[in-house]
Amino acid sequence: MTLEARRISYAYAPGSDVIRQATVSLDEGRITFLLGSNGSGKTTLLECLAGLRMPRSGAVLLDGQDLRRLPPRLRARRIGLVPQMHEPTFSYTVAEVVLMGRAPHMGLFARPSAEDWRAVDVALEAVGLSGLRNRPYDRTSGGERQLALVARGLAQGAAYLLMDEPAAHLDPHHQADVFDAVSRLAADGFSVTIASHQPNNALLYGDRAAFLIDGAADLQGTPSEILTKATLRQAYGMDFEILYAPGPSGPSAKAILPLSRQS
Amino acid sequence: MSPARGRTSWILVAAVPILFVVALLVGRYGIRIEETFRALLGLDGVSDVFRALILRVRLPRALAAACIGANLAITGAAFQGLFRNPLVDSRILGVSSGAAFGAAVALLLSAGTLGLQASAFAFALLAVALVLLIGARFGSAPLVLVIGGILVSALFNALLGLIKYVADPLSSLPAITYWLLGGLSQASWTSVTPLCAVTGAGLLFFLAIRWRLNVLTLSDVEASALGVRVRGLRVAVVGVGTVLIASSVAVGGMIGWIGLVVPHIARAWVGPDHGRLIPVSAALGIATLLALDTIARNAIASEIPLGILTGLIGVPAFLLLFLRFLRSRGEAR
What we know:
Chain A has 9 helices and 12 strands. By secondary structure, chain A is an alpha/beta fold. At the A-B interface, α2 and β6 of A face α8 and α9 of B.
C-alpha cells in the first residue's frame, strides 16, 4: 500500500516547471516531511499527491493505479488533504466541520446517516477532540482547529494524510499537541506527509524527509541522514547549527537551530 | 438540536399556515373565516363576489407572497454559503438589474402584464448567463462571479436609465417607477401557477442538496479534496437559484432585503449547517413575506409598495443582527 509520485513535473505556466521530475514515495505507518524554502513547490507537490493537480509529465500512483483514472470520490476516500487552519466564514461546530469529511461517502442528495455520525465521533476520539464536539470551530485554539481538520481527513477514511504546514501560527505547546496526535496516527498505520518550514520538527517527529530545491526532490532519506549543515545551507541559503547528544550508538542530532546572520 | 432551537422550528412550522389564512382573511372587504373556508373548499353559503375575491384575488396573491418569500430566502442562504460571504444576497449576480431592464422595456412597449413578466424573466436569465459566461472565461471562482455580477448589474442599470430617459413622462415612466418599487398587486393565476411550479421544483432541489451545500463553503481546493466536483455543483446552484429569483422578480418586482436578512436570522437561530438552515430560511421567508404583504395591502388606504416595506423593516433588522454579531466578538457594547 503506497502513494507515490513518479518523476512528476508540474507547471502553472508553460516553460516554467514548479515541480521537476520529482519522485516521492509515501508509505503507511510513516511520517514524511517535505522541506524547502518558500516557493520551492511544497504545496504544489502536496496538491499533486492529493490528485488535485495533474502533473504535466510523470504520474501519481495510488497502489500502482494512476490518480488520473481514479474518480474524485474514490480518491477522496483514500487521500485526505489537511489544509492550514483558517478563519472560517461561518460558525460551524467542530463536529459539523468533521462531518464534511463524509462527503465522498454520501450521495449528492443524501443526509448524514448514523454511520456518518459514528465516523465523526471515531475521528474526534482519535485526535482527542471528543470534548469539543459541539464547540464552534472558530472558538477553538489554533492547535484544536488543526486537529479538527486532521479529524476531517480521518472521517474521509483516508489512509494518506497530506498536511500543509500544520505547525504554522502555533506556539510550541500546541505544535507538540498536533505532532503527538500525528505520531499516534502513524503508529496506527496512517501515512502522514507534512509540508513544513521547520527542519527541527522533521528531526523530532519525522521518519523520512525530502528536500525540495527548485522543484526537484533529489535529497531524501531519514531526517538525521539528510539534515546536515551542508544540505540546510543549500536549501535555505543560510547557516544552521545542529546540536548532538550522546547515545548508545554514538551521538545523534537533537535540534536544528538557524543562526543569526548579524554576528 | 437544543430545546430552544426545536421550539423555534415548531413556532415557524405553525406560523406559516396561520399567516397564510390571515392573508386570506384580512382585506378591504371583511370576509368571515367560515366563508373563506367555504370558498376554498368549493362549498355553498358564500356570495359569488366573496368567492371570486378569495379564489381569484387573495389566494393567488398569498401564494405569490409565499413562493417569492421562499425563493428569496433560500437563494440568499445558498448564495451566501456559495460565495462564502454573509453579505451576499440573492441579487448578487445581476438578476434584479436584468429583470428591471426587461420590465422597463415591456412597459415602454406597453406589452401587457404577461409580456412584462416574460420580458423581466428573460432578461434576468440573460444577465446571469452573461455573468456565468464572464466567469467561465476566468475560472468561475466566486470572486470572478461577484465581479461579473457587479459589471452586468452596472450595464443593465445604465440601459434601464436609457429606457427611463426615452420613456413617456406621463404614462410609461411612472409605470416603470412604480414597478421598480415592487408589489404583488399584479399576481393572478396566469402568473402564479408557473411561479408555484418553479418554486416547488427549486425548493425540492435545495432541500435535497442542502447537506452538500456545507462543503461549498470551503475553499475550492478543500472541497475538491473531499471528492466534490466544485464547479459543476456551483453552476447548478447558481442556475436553479437564478430561475427562482428571476420568476419571483418577474411577478413581484424589486423586493429587496429578504434574501439578505432572512438567512441571517435563520443562521442566528439554527446555526450555519445548511441541513437546518435551508428549511428554516424557507419557512421564515414565507412567513415574513406573507406578513409584510398583508400589511402592505391593509396598513393605509392605498397599497404600500412591498419593496418599500421590506426596506423599512429590513434595514433596522439587519442593524440589530450586525450589532449582535459585533457583541459576540466583543467589538461593540
